[in-house]
Amino acid sequence: MRENSQRRISYFSDKQITDIVIPERFTFPFYYEPHPLATIAATELQDYLETQTHLDHNFGLSADKDGMVIGKMFGVLVVQDTAGKLGYLSAFSGKLAGTNDHPKFVPPVFDMLEEDSFFLKEIAVINAVNAGIKEIEEDKIYQDLKLEAEKLSAQSLQEISACRIQLKANKASRKQVREQQKNRLTQQDHVVAEAALIKQSLHDKHQLKVLTSRWEQVLDEARARLAQFDSPIEMLKNERKEKSAALQQQLFEQYVFLNKDGKSKSLHDIFSLTPFGKPPAAAGECATPKLLQFAFANGYTPLAMAEFWWGASPKSEIRKHKQYYPACTGKCKPILAHMLEGMPLDENSFLLTPEKDSELDIVYEDESFVVVNKPAGLRSVPGVDIGDSVYSRLQQTLGNIEPLIVHRLDMGTSGLLVVAKTRQAHKHIQSQFLRGTVKKRYRALLSSVIDQLEGEINLPLCADLFNRPRQLVCFDTGKKSITRWKMAQQYDGVTKVDFWPLTGRTHQLRMHSAHALGLNAPIVGDDLYGSAAERMYLHAAQLEFMHPTTREKISFEVAEGF
């Protein structure tokens, strides 16, 4: 591979890197600001993408481009070659223009599209099975039999239902006859009349049984005729399932990842100890694992990385053209844990918190609850790696009273947070949040100018299972998420807005701000859906709810401070 590696690396000119200090630690891939060298590399790659003419791929950036619009994540890896010279490698996630082979970019960890590969051979076999299934399903006789079976089934349900309705009416009629005859007949006549009614009842039940039995026979005959086609279809589908599973397992074993010490692990081994138990689809196809693999295989020293989105934004995720993004967690985190083993990394910014000695700002306190003005960057409750939080600080402040968290704010969000001091207060206030009777107003600074003065956003949200804690817009499975908003003030290139969330979904305001179908303007400093800054400019400014003891409406308001 070393002979081929020279055409995959792009070297910096001496002029480009003058006075730029080489990073001592590698980029923390899940939260970072690109190193200056990575920024130069990314800019050069973006210039290449803007000017190239040979890639037959529709990124959605030009109206006259044919084909399905597919934006792509691209990555750059700043490296030092074996001679100590600085350069960078480029990669893309997945396939580009339907292939993996592009001289400008590093190859995949395993090229399943290589000519005569076992993957293509097995796919051809699976496609032949699919063709067999399709041939049977499109057979005119089979389709006629399916249609006949559906009609017979509908007819049977209709007739049996009509019979049940009639029998129910007959039963009601017999009951009425019994009531009428109760005091009019002699005992002997009553016995005779009752026997006649019982006979009618038995006749009705027999009629329903005969009808049901006859339809069962008719439907069984229809199913038997269909089984001549359904059985081979089911056999082919089972064969396809087995072959697909075997192929997937074989692929997992082919994806073998290196680290700086030359140790290798397969995709299967890497994911065997994760909650998934097995690799998710397309694991190992992201840009950063490709880049590191090529660097380690060729003796290059990785120094810094960066990934950016190129193309139109997808409908579900928030991805902005040319915006930098961290590596994904679901697919890449387990892989990178192996590949970066033993390499010193930049500090994990997720673990940084405000000064622990800083005093918690208590806005209000009585016997029932406390309202605090949470600073940006402080968690509401302790995390796996961070103990410092509103909860832990109140534990110290309140002494023997256990703080009971009623609701939460994102770590980056500042503002009003209610914490109960008694079980009764906790239950009462929390029920108000759950019923949606608590009035909440947030103030945010958005990263661009908004044309409208006010409006309502209705975008259903769900968790991005392979990239937590990010959320997705999904009109199929997402939960209803509604936000009212109104412009408060405009500055040069930014807009300050007020938000009234009518639902309380995770990252609702952040998603509704950033998504193209929302305001299409990420909150300033939102490192998940926009660009990082000294803080996220989102503040819980106002709260109104019923006091758990006095039952009076109480309201709190704290200015945003930005």
Structure description:
- By secondary structure, the protein is α+β, with helices and mostly antiparallel strands.
- 36% of the residues lie in helices and 19% in strands.
- The chain has three domains: 2-110 and 255-349, no CATH class; 135-229; 353-557, Pseudouridine synthase, CATH 3.30.2350.10.
- It has helices spanning 2-5, 36-51, 118-137, 140-181, 187-254, 267-271, 287-297, 332-339, 390-398, 423-435, 508-514; strands at residues 10-11, 72-80, 86-92, 256-258, 264-266, 301-310, 324-325, 361-365, 369-374, 404-405, 414-420, 439-446, 454-458, 461-463, 471-473, 482-490, 495-501, 538-546, 553-557.
- The relative contact order is 0.10.
Query: What is the CATH homologous superfamily assignment of the largest domain?
Result: Pseudouridine synthase
| Head-to-tail CA distance between termini | 54 Å
CA radius of gyration: 33 Å
Q: Which series of helices and strands comes N to C?
A: HEHEEHHHEEHHEEHEEHEEHEEEEEEHEE
Provide mean pLDDT, rounded: 92
Shape: flat
Which regions have little confidence, pLDDT < 50, spanning 5+ residues? none
State the helix count.
11
Strand element count: 19
Biggest β-sheet, characterized? 10 strands, mixed
Tell me what the CATH architecture of the largest domain is.
2-Layer Sandwich
The CATH topology of the largest domain turns out to be Pseudouridine synthase
